[in-house]
Design brief:
single chain; 57 residues; mainly alpha; flat; 6264_t:CDS:1
């Protein structure tokens, strides 16, 4: 099997990390789940004084 490029390995790692985060969120009580999803959304689309900052998820 050919070796994956560094970028593809990183993308595979990030995908597995995101899946793990969302699996953990699904196991939370409903209120905590909503808060966690709102936090992730605010990191993706910051508003206010953080609007022009780049924040990765």
């Amino acid at each position: 099997m050919p070796k994956l490029s560094k970028q593809k390995r990183h993308m595979k790692y990030m995908t597995s990390q995101k899946e793990e985060i969302f699996n953990n969120i699904r196991e939370m009580p409903e209120l905590q789940m909503k808060n966690a999803l709102n936090l992730i959304e605010s990191m993706r689309n910051p508003k206010g004084k953080h609007k022009n900052e780049i924040i990765s998820v």
